[in-house]
Design a protein that fits this description.
Blueprint: H1 2-17, E1 21-26, E2 34-37, E3 42-46, E4 52-55, E5 61-65, E6 69-74, E7 82-86, E8 89-95, E9 104-109, E10 112-122, E11 130-136, E12 140-145, E13 148-153, E14 156-158, E15 160-161, E16 165-167, E17 171-177, E18 184-190
Antiparallel strand pairs: 1-2, 1-8, 3-4, 3-6, 5-8, 6-7, 9-10, 10-11, 11-12, 12-13, 13-14, 15-16, 16-17, 17-18
């Protein structure tokens, strides 16, 4: 009977934490300047002495930043790592079930707000897959249709590297899109 109870408790705890988490970085104490990375993104948060104080986990966690920290992120959509220096703010591993996947969302970047609109549709060529039109209010448009994709700014086609880093004169759009379920993760870094 003890073995069955242990197995049941183990399965319940595994189920409770089997949901993937995504990385959410608030770069200021006002919690307005946000960067988000897709589920499963590996990272290391190091304190001022170089010790790792937080890294990727399936379990949700929050760590308030009150002094010098360095966040090293290894996004799966590009070869280079992102290095973010933090002196304040919050680093959070949030459950994907809590992700607000609304058709329109605004993220403040360096005090500037950027709004995105997402239009999802079912693929007519590939059963069970999604297509996407992703539009930023600054004019950048990303389209994904049946495995093909491109980005534009006005009449100009933009270069896309990896999945999907889009560079323009306005800045860099980092976008992650899953045609399997239609989830979109994005961050826009404006040119200074």
């Amino acid at each position: 009977m003890r073995i069955i109870t242990t197995i049941i408790l183990s399965l319940v705890s595994i189920a409770a934490f089997s949901q993937k988490t995504y990385l959410k970085v608030y770069k200021d104490d006002a919690l307005t300047n946000i960067i988000m990375y897709p589920p499963g993104t590996e990272f290391e948060l190091r304190n001022q002495h170089g010790y790792i104080v937080l890294k990727y986990s399936e379990a949700p966690r929050k760590l308030k930043i009150e002094n010098k920290h360095k966040l090293i992120v290894f996004p799966n959509y590009k070869k280079e790592k992102d290095i973010i220096h933090l002196n304040e703010g919050l680093v959070e591993l949030a459950l994907t079930s809590e992700f607000d996947d609304t058709p329109s969302e605004t993220i403040a970047v360096g005090g500037k707000k950027v709004t995105a609109q997402k239009i999802l549709s079912n693929s007519t060529k590939i059963k069970g897959k999604k297509n996407l039109i992703f539009t930023l209010d600054n004019g950048i448009v990303f389209r994904y249709t049946d495995g093909n994709y491109y980005a534009t700014l006005g009449d100009e086609y933009l270069d896309i590297t990896g999945k999907y880093v889009i560079k323009s004169d306005l800045g860099i759009l980092r976008l992650s899109f899953s045609p399997n379920n239609g989830q979109v993760w994005w961050y826009f870094e404006a040119t200074k």
